[in-house]
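Go through this chain.

——
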Amino acid sequence: MRPFLFDYAFMMKQAKGSLAALLVGLCAIMLATRNGDSPMAFKKSPATKNDPPICTFSLVAYDPEHQEWGVAVASKFLAVGSVVPWAKAGVGAIATQSHANTTYGPKGLELLSEGKSADEVIKQLTIDDMSKDVRQVGIIDAKGNAATFTGAKCMVWAGGKTGKHYACQGNILAGETVVDDMAKAFEESSGPLAWRLISALEAAEKAGGDKRGKQSAAILVVREKGGYSGFNDRMIDFRVDDHETPVQELARILALRLKRP
């Protein structure tokens, strides 16, 4: 594209008179279109960039007894925890993935803090997103209401499921069983929210998980003043960025902090 722009600018500079400039411009555009280029090619959607899709499985959930909100995620993607999980105590939790729109995290939490429900936030986040067809997001709000969204062009298998106080979702999965087993494991588990989230990841992985393989996993659980010395809400915030068995490694790290039931 750069040679085309240079030649076009050069020809325009050399053209004499407005009519000549117009003819030169039209010829240049026709030539570019014939070669498969277009002036519109400069306006790329975020979904057409070179960043790989975050093909993964995740769960957002709420523990009403301890007033905790959490996100757990695993993927064949380097450092998935740096992109997918977002949460704030008293507000909610969000997982943004596929061709992830990372603005869904902070914007979604802001909308949740205004009292909007999980469903309302997903509608507001996606309504003006021109690439929503390749997005996937799960949200749990302050009251534990859950919602999940999978764009029509997310790579198969892709989909989500909601239940009491949770939403799970995934894309490029081994099949629908991955999400079903993840949901079932969360529903049937007990104990701290963090371990219930890990149990869900383990079940999803056992069902086939990300069909491309394994690489990273992360868990984030927030509670008011749950962080170090009570200065913030990040009670559990662990990541495994690159590992042969990331979910198992994440469980090992969590056990160093919180005994497994």
